[in-house]
Every structure is written in structure tokens, then in C-alpha cells.
Design goal:
This protein is mainly α. It has one domain. Helix content is 79%, strand content 0%. The chain contains two helices and no strands. The model has no long low-confidence stretch (mean pLDDT 91).
Length: 58
């Protein structure tokens, strides 16, 4: 019953992932390739965590 009110960690990670990709795109447009690479790497780590959680649910 109380599981209904639990937050989904995958949903938060997905939102963080999308924000990182957006920030990476903006950094790229501004010519800051170093920040783009860093943000893309962080986004990839978040995606790996999302995939790990999806596998754990199955």
C-alpha cells in the first residue's frame, strides 16, 4: 500500500539524463567542446545506471 507513494528512481535519472544532454548540446553550440565532452560523459554514466536499474527490475 505504501509503495504507491514511493518515487521511481529511474524517472529521476531519466530527467537528469535529459538535462545533461541538453546542457551538452548548449555547450557545443557555444563552442565549449570541453564542457560538451564532460557533460556527455556524465550523461552516458546516467544512461548506464538507468539500464542497470531496468535490468534489475526484470
Amino acid at each position: 500500500m505504501f509503495g504507491l507513494f514511493k518515487r521511481d528512481p529511474k524517472k529521476k535519472l531519466q530527467q537528469d539524463y535529459e538535462r545533461k544532454l541538453q546542457a551538452a548540446m548548449e555547450a557545443s553550440r557555444n563552442g565549449d567542446m570541453r564542457a560538451n565532452a564532460t557533460l556527455t560523459e556524465e550523461a552516458d554514466a546516467l544512461l548506464a545506471e538507468i539500464e542497470r536499474l531496468k535490468k534489475a527490475d526484470k
